[in-house]
Amino acid sequence: MLETIVGALGLVFGSFLNVCIYRIPRGESIIFPSSHCPNCGRKIRWFDLIPILSFIILKGKCRYCKSPISPLYPAVEAVCCLLAIASTRVYGLSVSAFLLFLIGCILIYISVVDFKTYEMSVTSILLLAILKFGFEVSLKGVLKTSMTFVVLGPILNALLVGLIYLITRGNAMGLGDVLLLMAGGVGFTVRQAIVCNFVAFLVAFLYVLGLKLVQSILKGNEKKREIPFGPFISIGIFVSTVAGERIADLYYQLIIVR
Ligand SMILES: [Zn+2]
Question: What sequence ranges are listed for the domain Prepilin peptidase A24 N-terminal (predicted)?
Answer without folding.
Answer: 9-87
